[in-house]
Design brief:
alpha/beta; 21% strand; globular; 29% helix; single chain
Length: 418
């Protein structure tokens, strides 16, 4: 019996005999602008964190993450065919966890080919073990014209409830705004965080058009945690009921009224508890959000000024899209013969129409624009990339790199948070 129903059924005398009934704290929910359906504002992503095979310990850890997510009132789980084994793992774990009436399923279509889209949607339904999805997005706007037609048909058939498009890493804002103006979509998913607020115009348009907004990469792939390190929260964080940095980062996002929800990803149960706590208590007003931004802006500026490296060299994009290993070993694609460079230091990879850089567990780290990478990040013209003592500025032209691509194993972010 539900708590409220039970209290209504108890005789009044039992409620006055010194028994104290503690109501559970209200957790933040946001509504789809058009349907007014409300969902928990703190969801869960699965990029990198749920790409797990048959390893017993790793599966048990992800099960605990899911269990705490639902116990704390979570509901929105986001995945994609791009995320390796994540959809399969979610589908295998869900039947063993109590989540009746809580789950809101969100996935994506991700293929350049029209004919693959329907098969991909069928396969995702099979892996999740659900009869329909609550939300399906065209991943990173890849072939969105064809796939939105597919999703509209699936919506009419009752296989999908809401449809939309996604982008990430601050890319393709002009294109996603064109889609928002011209296509009848219900939702978008974009990157927006204290490290990258460039999506403000997209949020404004979403509010104007009545489109739900989900935020990916709220911790900038874990880089925000690297930025604050062991620093204490500002004293004034208590003004919006904030007691940890995960709350700080997430409450800043949720302080924007156009945001429907955010989907932080983690491998750690304790981190899930921190993430979910962001849905409790007060949110910062616009004046507090500006103070929060100033805190991180100051840290970015100080950290960027402390890096000491060799002279800057231009780094052009490879001629052939693929994956290229950078390091000190003889068999890598871009060889850097310096002691501060690890044998297999970083991976340069072409993904979804853009180049990404990923640290491969190097000793001294891979640094982008003054910040150490915990995972993958886009590599854009004008970026400063530090590999050991070697500093490169990215230029928008082709290089002579044309080696056969190799794919090393890419680990989850060190702190388990994206």
């Amino acid at each position: 019996m539900h708590r409220r129903t039970l209290l209504q059924a108890l005789p009044a005398s039992l409620l006055t005999l010194g028994t104290t009934v503690h109501a559970e704290p209200a957790r933040l929910r946001r509504s789809f602008p058009r349907s007014r359906e409300s969902i928990p504002a703190i969801g869960m992503g699965t990029w990198l964190t749920f790409d797990v095979g048959e390893e017993t310990a790793q599966r048990a850890q992800r099960r605990e993450v899911l269990q705490r997510f639902f116990a704390a009132g979570g509901g929105v789980i986001d995945s994609s065919p791009m995320y390796g084994r994540a959809e399969r793992l979610v589908g295998e774990l869900l039947p063993d966890l109590p989540h009746a009436g809580k789950l809101f399923t969100s996935t994506k279509v991700w293929t350049a080919f029209d004919r693959i889209g329907p098969r991909q949607l069928d396969e995702s339904l099979r892996l999740w073990r659900v009869p329909r999805f609550d939300l399906v997005l065209v991943h990173n706007l890849l072939n969105w014209e064809a796939h939105l037609k597919l999703l509209r048909a699936a919506k009419e058939q009752g296989r999908v409830r809401y449809i939309g498009v996604s982008t990430s890493h601050g890319r393709k804002h002009d294109e996603i705004q064109r889609v928002m103006r011209d296509e009848p979509i219900d939702a978008i998913q974009i990157t927006y965080s204290l490290a990258d607020a460039s999506a403000e115009p997209v949020l404004a348009l979403a509010a104007e058009r009545g489109i739900a907004v989900f935020i990916n990469r709220p911790f900038d792939g874990g880089m925000l945690f690297n930025a604050v390190g062991a620093r204490a929260l500002p004293d004034w964080a208590s003004e919006f009921d904030c007691s940890n940095w995960a709350q700080f980062f997430l409450k800043w996002i949720l302080g924007h009224p156009a945001v429907t929800g955010t989907i932080p990803a983690t491998t750690q149960p304790a981190h899930m508890d921190e993430n979910m706590s962001a849905g409790l208590g007060r949110l910062p007003d616009q004046a507090l959000r500006r103070r929060m931004s100033a805190v991180l802006d100051g840290m970015f500026a100080r950290r960027a000024a402390t890096r000491s490296v060799h002279d800057v060299t231009e780094l052009a994009y490879p001629r052939v899209p693929g994956q290229y290993v950078i390091g000190r070993a003889d068999d890598v694609d871009l060889h850097l013969d310096f002691a501060s460079v690890s044998r297999r230091h970083a991976l340069l990879a072409y993904v979804d129409g853009g180049w990404m850089i990923t640290d491969l567990g190097s000793r001294n780290g891979t640094w982008l624009n003054g910040w150490r990478l915990p995972g993958a990040a886009p590599l854009l013209p004008g970026d400063l990339l530090d590999i050991g003592c070697c500093r490169f500025v990215v230029v928008d032209r082709l290089s002579g790199l044309d080696a056969t691509p190799r794919l090393p194993e890419i680990a989850s972010p060190p702190n388990g948070q994206t």
